[in-house]
Amino acid sequence: MEEYKFWQQKRKIKQFLSAVVFIFILILGWQYPLLGYFIPLCMFLGIIIGLVSGRKWCDWYCPRGSFYDALISNISPKRKIPAFLKSMYFRIGVLSFLMLIMTYNLIRNWPNPYKIGMFFVTLITTTTVLGIILAIIFHQRSWCMFCPIGTIVNLIGRNKRPLRIDSDLCVECKLCAKVCPVQLEPYIYKGKGIQIVKEGDCLKCGLCVAACPTKALK
Fold first, then answer.
1. What's 217's DSSP letter?
2. Among 14, 32, 75, 184, which residue is least crowded by beta carbons within 10 Å?
């Protein structure tokens, strides 16, 4: 458990620093609209990293995800995230809707860089407020379940650096599920021998690996 505590503390420090950057961007963006281009940059980086490492970006590299985990988790009841928020139909619907809004606003405001930047600031502010509301009602990572970039990376990177479970070592203590920031349950993949945990939403955070008392996860 000492390894888990060390890993968790290290992750918290990184998330806190990333969250501070996010707060500054969010506040200053209303005065300096060009900071809004930080948003498409994050989208681009999330997809590029996703092609290699799945949703690793969403662990602490994502400033908004870090903001939810580092700060908003303190006021979240951490209830079970509703299944419909994880549904791929719902997620693709949200992705399509937001892509349409983005395309419309880019065309409407082109080529004014300030208006485009302000659109991104407005978009990130609105969706962040929605995420905070969901965090207060359910869980701090509720938004991450249907975040457009998260959905894209789920589809293109679900087989990248997959978690593996050694069924011979797993004792079904369920600690992996308890420490998972997005409520995944690796132990349910227990079968015969080493099994691949097919979860496109795995953040590659390593908390379950560090917490496993029998080292069944890699």
1. B
2. 75
- Is the dihedral angle over the CA atoms 83, 161, 208, 63 positive or is it negative? negative
Q: Which two tokens stand for residue 173?
A: 């203590």
Q: How many CB atoms lie within 10 A of CB 10?
A: 13
**Burial class, 126, CB count within 10 angstroms (exposed 0-12 / middle 13-18 / buried 19+):** exposed
> What's the whole-model pTM score?
0.91
Residue type at 107 in one-letter notation: I
| Dihedral sign from CA coordinates of 173, 142, 103, 19 | negative
111 cis-preceded (ω within 30 degrees of 0): yes
d(CA 130, CA 2): 36
Q: Structure tokens of 69?
A: 């985990």
Phi, psi dihedral angles at 129 (to 5 degrees): -60, -40
pLDDT of residue 147: 95
Backbone angles phi, psi at 26, to 5 degrees: -65, -40
In sequence order, what are the residues at sequence separation of 6 or more whose Cβ sits closer than 8 angstroms to the Cβ of residue 149?
42, 43, 46, 47, 50, 57, 58, 62
pLDDT band at 5 (very low <50, low <70, confident <90, very high): confident
Terminal C-alpha separation, the chain: 16
Is the C-alpha dihedral spanning 154, 160, 163, 166 positive or negative?
A: positive
Q: What does the angle CA 106 – CA 45 – CA 80 come to, to the nearest 5 degrees?
A: 95
